[in-house]
């Protein structure tokens, strides 16, 4: 069984307003699309992101990553077809099709749909309709509608890959969703329980609702880190992964990257998992001269294992020299690469201590860092 998820994200979000398409707007600290994509990453073998040809920045951003990209079509169904086509050489057996505009989808819905595909060629989440249903014009009720047997359809909708490819190829167009396409082709679609929180952001007010849902079981943790290394002989220092020529070096058991150590300790701190010295004892000769990225990678992996995502880190270096400003961007890029973050999630800045204290006398460099981790 080889599984894939197609996330259709090529719409313009006109009903949601706001100028920017809704999938690129912020929700609980990150973009709608980032939430949606992350829900599927660990649940399927491949994720296809269907992007509008107009979303240049998104194409650029995602082209280096692990996602398969496909170009959107003139309507949702055309975008789905392009997503299916992008998987043609991947030997996919089961595919989930999901709206990017449903970022609150739970892992259990995804797993339930996949489980149902073991015994059915199609499965999708539905919610029984519990409100009374009316017909109406803009002002008055014109009739009532029996709700018996009615469901509100959600995504992800799951299918055996070849079956849904054939169903889309044969469909005349105009379907509300992929379940309709599948049913026209004669597929039986199993209903799995939907979730009231699995809303589709459609109108402006849906953002506030989605924000409430996202935040209700969000665990946000802060950690701080502090480190100092003294100057000694040498012709360079390594700060936040960047080698900077200098008339002195920093002393330490490892490469003495005081900035990266503070960031690493901030992550351990947020996790309440001790500090670098506990995980990599200075008494252990194997860490002598070690590149500090080993420590940072370990902290990031630990965060992942414990279910946390790093939202941002902020690092301040305290020294008179070397001057940090010219290197700050390279430091941000280096650390964001190691942590698997975007550079805008990583801040590196510096201050002097006005020639006061040990940093002011250039006896060493100090560093402070804060990390914000989120579990949702
Ligand atoms: N040509 C299109 C149209 C829609 N979609 C996607 O289909 C899903 C459901 O569509 P909808 O909620 O209607 O999104 P939009 O089309 O973006 O919204 P609107 O109709 O308000 O413009 C969304 O994830 C949207 O990005 C798509 O990939 N390609
Ligand atoms: C696919 C869907 O989300 C199922 O409820 C829905 O049909 C999409 O509708 P839209 O009109 O494209 O928003």
From TrEMBL:
It catalyses: 4-CDP-2-C-methyl-D-erythritol 2-phosphate = 2-C-methyl-D-erythritol 2,4-cyclic diphosphate + CMP; 2-C-methyl-D-erythritol 4-phosphate + CTP + H(+) = 4-CDP-2-C-methyl-D-erythritol + diphosphate. A divalent metal cation binds at residues 227, 229, 261. Pathway: Isoprenoid biosynthesis; isopentenyl diphosphate biosynthesis via DXP pathway; isopentenyl diphosphate from 1-deoxy-D-xylulose 5-phosphate: step 4/6; Isoprenoid biosynthesis; isopentenyl diphosphate biosynthesis via DXP pathway; isopentenyl diphosphate from 1-deoxy-D-xylulose 5-phosphate: step 2/6. Its cofactor is a divalent metal cation. Keywords: Isoprene biosynthesis, Lyase, Metal-binding, Multifunctional enzyme, Nucleotidyltransferase, Transferase. The record marks 15, 22, 253, 352 as: Transition state stabilizer. 4-CDP-2-C-methyl-D-erythritol 2-phosphate binds at residues 227-229, 253-254, 275-277, 351-354, 358, 361. Pfam families: IspD, YgbB. Its EC number is 2.7.7.60, 4.6.1.12. It comes from the Bacteria. Residues 1-220 are annotated as: 2-C-methyl-D-erythritol 4-phosphate cytidylyltransferase. The keyword Metal-binding applies. The record marks 147, 200 as: Positions MEP for the nucleophilic attack. Belongs to the IspD/TarI cytidylyltransferase family. IspD subfamily. In the C-terminal section; belongs to the IspF family. This is Bifunctional enzyme IspD/IspF. It comes from Ruegeria haliotis.
């Amino acid at each position: 069984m080889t599984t894939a998820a197609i996330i259709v994200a090529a719409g313009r979000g006109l009903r949601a307003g706001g100028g920017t398409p809704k999938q690129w707007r912020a929700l609980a600290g990150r973009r709608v699309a980032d939430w949606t994509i992350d829900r599927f990453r660990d649940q399927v073998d491949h994720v296809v992101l269907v992007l509008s040809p107009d979303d240049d920045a998104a194409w650029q951003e995602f082209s280096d990553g692990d996602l398969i990209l496909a170009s959107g079509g003139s309507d949702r169904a055309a975008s789905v077809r392009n997503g299916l086509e992008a998987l043609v050489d991947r030997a996919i057996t089961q595919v989930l099709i999901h709206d990017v505009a449903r970022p609150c989808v739970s892992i259990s819905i995804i797993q339930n749909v996949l489980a149902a595909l073991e015994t059915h060629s199609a499965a999708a989440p539905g919610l029984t309709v519990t409100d009374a249903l009316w017909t109406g014009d803009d002002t008055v009720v014109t009739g009532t509608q029996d709700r018996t047997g009615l469901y509100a359809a959600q995504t992800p909708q799951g299918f055996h890959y070849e079956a849904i490819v054939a169903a889309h190829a044969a469909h005349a167009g105009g379907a509300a969703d992929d379940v309709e396409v599948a049913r026209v082709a004669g597929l039986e679609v199993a209903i799995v329980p939907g979730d009231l929180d699995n809303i589709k952001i459609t109108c402006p007010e849906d953002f506030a609702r989605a924000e409430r849902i996202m935040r209700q079981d969000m665990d946000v943790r802060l950690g701080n880190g502090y480190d100092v290394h003294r100057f000694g002989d040498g012709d360079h220092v390594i700060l936040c992964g960047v080698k900077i020529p200098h008339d002195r070096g920093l002393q330490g058991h490892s490469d003495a990257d005081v900035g990266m150590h503070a960031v690493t300790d901030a992550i351990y701190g947020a996790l309440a998992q001790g500090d670098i010295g506990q995980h990599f004892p200075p008494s252990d000769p194997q860490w002598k001269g070690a590149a500090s990225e080993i420590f940072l990678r370990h902290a990031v992996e630990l965060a992942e294992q414990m279910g946390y995502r790093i939202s941002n880190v902020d690092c301040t270096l305290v020294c008179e020299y070397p001057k940090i400003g010219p290197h700050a961007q390279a430091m941000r890029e280096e650390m964001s690469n190691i942590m698997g973050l975007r550079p805008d999630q990583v801040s590196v800045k510096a201050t002097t201590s006005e020639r006061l204290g040990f940093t002011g006398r250039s006896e060493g460099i100090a560093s402070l860092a804060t990390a914000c981790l989120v579990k949702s």
